[in-house]
């Protein structure tokens, strides 16, 4: 028997594989096809068709800003700016200046006209992240703008009509904050016309491998490394771990593992950290401590606790010092000093 050949005796080439359908949500980074996340992907496609205010809810690290960006870039405003604002970083005394800008001569240092964030987002989307951190004064300022989308720059004489879609996000229960009196109910009504709730990673077990391969490939390309794979035991652990920091924690874990892997396969005894439990390394037992003084052992235990607690806290809050200080009950400056003391870089999370 002879094989069929093509022109000039060459073997006929196989027909090309059908091209994989382009998925804009994969391109944006909203990766996952579990039943729980497919519902989110379908809803994102639907929400992008409308232009009403939107509230995105979900735990820290679930991808709230990424989801908001997807809705923006799939919608009619895609050719206009997407302006993200961390509300926790807005100084209470400068909220109006940050949002509305100022006219020349509005105050001593206002030597020229300065557009605010709303003007920068004109035609596009203004994304208010951590909207729950707004002070009562800032909430009133935002509510006044949302009522008719008119604003006046500080020192300005005329009101300006804004053409922006407002999206907001929070990792807290805003209805509970309303009941406590720390968040305005009328502001919640203005923001929550449409809503999107992102599931935590622990409810997306079937997406963990897909996400992991995506992150490993990202860091392989960034650092020009050989292809990395996950050992089955590592993958099994990843599927059962709680992931309190959600996708952000998963990415951070794989970033580190990809760089420190001894071979082509990532096989680790992971350090399971959370604010509630501290850090516990699988298969390890405490070493002897009676060969040091009580004070030395106590100091060592305190240092280990601080490192594990702060590392998990920063992971869960995505490096947001304001939110980390609120959760830990410490002053912001005091917390920042502790992070510096232990060499914990919040920008790496």
From TrEMBL:
One of its GO terms (molecular function) is ATP binding. Residues 1-25 are annotated as: Disordered. CDD domains: AAA. Keywords: ATP-binding, DNA-binding, Nucleotide-binding, Transcription, Transcription regulation. Residues 30-259 form the Sigma-54 factor interaction domain. The keyword Signal does not apply. GO terms for biological process: regulation of DNA-templated transcription. InterPro entries: AAA+_ATPase, AAA_lid_NorR, Homeodomain-like_sf, HTH_Fis, P-loop_NTPase, Sigma_54_int, Sigma_54_int_dom_ATP-bd_2, Sigma_54_int_dom_CS. PANTHER family: TRANSCRIPTIONAL REGULATORY PROTEIN. This is Sigma-54 dependent transcriptional regulator. It comes from Nitrospina gracilis (strain 3/211).
């Amino acid at each position: 028997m002879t094989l069929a050949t093509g022109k000039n005796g060459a073997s006929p080439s196989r027909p090309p594989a059908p091209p994989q359908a382009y998925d804009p949500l994969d391109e944006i980074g909203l990766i996952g096809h579990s039943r729980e996340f497919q519902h989110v992907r379908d809803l994102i496609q639907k929400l992008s068709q409308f232009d009403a205010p939107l509230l995105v809810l979900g735990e820290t690290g679930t991808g709230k800003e990424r989801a908001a960006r997807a809705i923006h870039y799939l919608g009619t405003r895609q050719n206009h700016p997407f302006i993200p604002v961390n509300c926790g970083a807005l100084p209470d005394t400068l909220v109006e200046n940050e949002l509305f800008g100022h006219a020349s001569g509005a105050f001593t240092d206002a030597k020229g006209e300065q557009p605010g964030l709303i003007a920068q987002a004109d035609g596009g989307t203004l994304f208010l992240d951590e909207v729950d951190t707004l002070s009562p004064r800032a909430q009133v300022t935002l509510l006044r703008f949302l009522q008719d989308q008119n604003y006046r720059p500080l020192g300005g004489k005329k009101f300006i009509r804004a053409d922006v879609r407002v999206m907001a996000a929070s990792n807290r229960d805003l209805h509970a904050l309303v009941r406590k009196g720390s968040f305005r109910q009328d502001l919640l009504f203005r923001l929550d016309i449409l809503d999107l709730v992102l599931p935590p990673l622990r409810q997306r077990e079937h997406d963990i491998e897909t996400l992991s391969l995506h992150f490993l490939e990202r860091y392989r390309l960034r650092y020009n490394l050989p292809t990395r794979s996950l050992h089955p035991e590592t993958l099994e652990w990843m599927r059962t771990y709680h992931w309190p920091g959600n996708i952000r924690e998963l990415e951070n874990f794989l970033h580190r593992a990809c760089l420190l892997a001894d071979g082509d396969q990532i096989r680790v005894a992971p350090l399971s950290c959370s604010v509630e439990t501290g850090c516990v390394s699988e298969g390890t037992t405490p070493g002897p401590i009676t060969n040091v003084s009580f004070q030395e052992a106590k100091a060592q235990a305190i240092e280990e606790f601080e490192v594990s607690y702060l590392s998990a806290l920063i992971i869960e809050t995505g490096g947001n010092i304001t939110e980390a200080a609120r959760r830990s009950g410490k002053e912001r400056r005091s917390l920042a000093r502790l992070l510096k003391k232990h060499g914990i870089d919040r920008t790496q999370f």
